[in-house]
Design goal:
- By secondary structure, the protein is an all-alpha fold.
- The chain is 89% helix and 0% strand.
- The chain is built from four helices and no strands.
- The longest helix has 32 residues.
- The termini are far apart.
């Protein structure tokens, strides 16, 4: 079985050709989930730095990096929808 996020990403990616608007909406929902998670992890990093616990800081940074690696493909796929429509300003 696929993870839910991966399934949703693949579903939206497949849909980009048949219905770019719906694919964008799905990517937007995924983006919102990822951004919420990144905000929580940023808070965890800040809390770890305040407590000055090196292992906790390393763990929080690792989790943030992992979450960022999952977010970037979603963001790029969403931007590609505009790119394919030659709307380069929206990509920026």
């Amino acid at each position: 079985f696929l993870a839910t996020d991966l399934y949703e990403f693949l579903d939206a990616s497949i849909m980009t050709h048949s219905s770019p608007e719906e694919a964008y909406r799905k990517f937007d929902l995924l983006t919102t989930k990822h951004i919420d998670n990144l905000r929580k992890l940023t808070k965890a990093i800040q809390d770890a730095r305040l407590s000055r616990e090196n292992e906790t800081i390393k763990f929080a940074l690792k989790n943030y990096d992992d979450a960022l690696e999952k977010y970037i493909p979603v963001l790029m796929a969403q931007a590609k929808i505009y790119w394919d429509k030659d709307n380069y300003a929206a990509v920026e």
